[in-house]
Amino acid sequence: MAATFSLLSGSASAQTKICVDPGHGGTDPGAVGGTQQEATNVLDTGLRLRNFLNADTADTAGGGSWNVIMTRTTDASVSLSGRASFANTNGAARFMSIHNNAATSTAATGIETFSTSSTGTSADLRNKVQEEAVAVWPLANRGGKTANYSVLVNTSMPAELHEMGFISNSGDRTYLGSATQRDIHARSEMHALQRHYGFAKYNPGTAAVVVTQDNTGANFTLGSTAWFPGTSVPGYVGANYHARATQAVSDPATWTVSLPSGGTYRVDAWWTTATNRSATAPYQVTHTGGTTTVNRNQQVSGGSWQSLGNFSFNAGANTVRLSCWTTVGFYVVADAVRFTKL
Ligand SMILES: [Zn+2]
Questions:
Q1: Catalytic residue check, 163
Q2: Which of 38, 132, 163, 189 is catalytic?
């Protein structure tokens, strides 16, 4: 029983629980400057941060895996003690509070981030939030600071409180009041959290999609037994390549590639080079616009990826064929194809 419980615990802890705390709300608008309210700015920013973290979780190619909870997702009143107890009760691993600053002097400007101590885990998160924020908004860097704010003192997990900028300053307000800029800022907080947990900064949805198909398995088929496996010329992908004498018949080698998403891809082919190869090996790429034949000289450029061009494809199965129907007296070589999303 202990082993089973341990496995379940391990599975549940694979996601890191993050409590995002947009300050103020409801009966408390927070600081006000120009036509802007702090409560509105920070709620929008917090929701964008949550969406970025959820996207990061869904994209397993990079970044981290998060379980995001929020002290508020609407214009609701939540007490300071209620925010801390919400994070504590739900067992959050980190607490990230978002605010807009204000000062009597309208000249006060810039970005600062607080924790209760200048050392330790809270300070590390604080410093990374500050670093990433000043990297994306060109406002004054007021640095990482310490303060005994209620939500920092009463949360039982490492916590930071970020002041995005001064709502009392007209220059800062051009950033705080811009949805585009708040989106950029929210992404910077995701980057800070990724770095805090030892991941490289990563933007979800940007991983390179590269799909390679060798001349093996169910996704590589040959029209007839006139195709034969070869290993005599080195520099092939995998265990071997297939070759066939050129002839005026329809007897292609076909690679079927399963693409995870539609879009524009560069298609590359790989062959091995010898003087008996066809100088006009006819590759046939089937894409959303039809089938395009691309002739390649296999007497040169073997042992490396050679582009057949850029084409648009739908998600799912797509094919590249190598025909043997070209100038007779040579061989065409089918080794591997590769699709790289552009
Ligand atoms: Zn505030």
A1: yes
A2: 163
